[in-house]
Amino acid sequence: MFNASRDGGFDLDAPPVPWISLGWIQGFTRTATGKPVAVMTGIPAAPLGQVRESLDAELSFQFLAWNKLTMALATGSQHMNLLAPASASVQAAPAVSLQSGSTASSIALAPTDLAGFTAATMVAVDNDYAGQTGFVGSPISGAYVRSALSDVDYIRRVTFNVALVAQVTQVGLILAEPLPGGAPAASAKVQAVCGFIDRTGGSFYQEWSGLFVIEGAQGERIFFHYPRLQAMKDSEELAVLLAPRGKGSLERIALKAQFRALPVTDPLDGERVLCYRSFLPAPKALV
């Protein structure tokens, strides 16, 4: 849960843990689709009051940057990692074991395993798949396995524990950003990733928490906190015109995203809610 009174003044480029910045968005639209109905009484009937017959809300926007998390949020299906192939092969390069001393920001490897990685390589860090069913992947579930599979790399195909290598040292990998799941388990392995993929179809839905911030020119802020969001549509893109260029144009391809808000029970009073809207006025502004 986001506490605007405690964390409302955070640096937008460095949000408080466990939030992760996904950059700028555009076209942000909120739509309340819940339905209030009148309670009628008397003859002839007249409205006595109102109750909520349904509780529902949607929101949509476009991500201006493509990365693993924006792709995952903008698709209504399972999101996966493209494991880098071995030389002259279509098979994924084998994963290598971690050594003791690995942290969220540095991965210790045996000297013989370092040759498979260079600076600017993306890596997935997670356990081997061992035939289990149910939710798999850390720090959040990347898939739900209904029947046992034979792919030992499957968890690293779906994990969100992915980062970019900034530097290769004599003892391991220095990551450009910490792994989302924190320090990896001792049983985890490292595998090179060359990109990301999602599929239209399937039965698995990701679920996220969303925090959207609008900042005013004088320092005021509006927060929209959605504790539970699920994508409503399959992957979709939007061409955004930046400038005309001769007979063509200069465009940016944005990721379109549309979500349904799911309810939570507020521990303060037991009410079911979809979104919290907070406003922090500018310093010394009249209230």
> How much helix is in the residues?
under 10%
Nearest-integer average pLDDT = 92
- Order of helices and strands, N to C? HEEEEHEEEEEEHEEEEEEEEEE
Q: How much β-strand is present in the residues?
A: 35-45%
Name the structural class.
mainly beta
Distance between the termini: 26 Å
Number of extended strands:
20
Oligomeric grouping of the chains: single chain
How many independent structural domains? 2
**Major sheet, described briefly?**
7 strands, antiparallel
Tally of individual helices: 3
How much is the radius of gyration in Å? 23 Å
The backbone outline, from C-alpha atoms, is globular
Low-confidence stretches: none
Quick summary:
This protein is mainly β. 5% of the residues lie in helices and 44% in strands. The protein is globular.
Describe this structure in words.
By secondary structure, this protein is mainly β. 5% of the residues lie in helices and 44% in strands. Strand 16 (236-245) and strand 17 (248-261) form a beta hairpin. 24% of the residues are buried. The model has no long low-confidence stretch (mean pLDDT 92).
Secondary structure layout plus pairing:
Elements: H1 4-7, E1 25-32, E2 35-41, E3 46-54, E4 57-63, H2 68-73, E5 79-83, E6 96-97, E7 106-108, E8 122-126, E9 134-136, E10 143-145, H3 154-158, E11 162-168, E12 172-175, E13 189-198, E14 208-215, E15 221-231, E16 236-245, E17 248-261, E18 264-265, E19 272-273, E20 276-280
Antiparallel strand pairs: 1-4, 2-3, 4-17, 5-13, 6-13, 7-12, 8-11, 8-13, 9-10, 11-12, 14-15, 15-17, 15-20, 16-17, 18-19
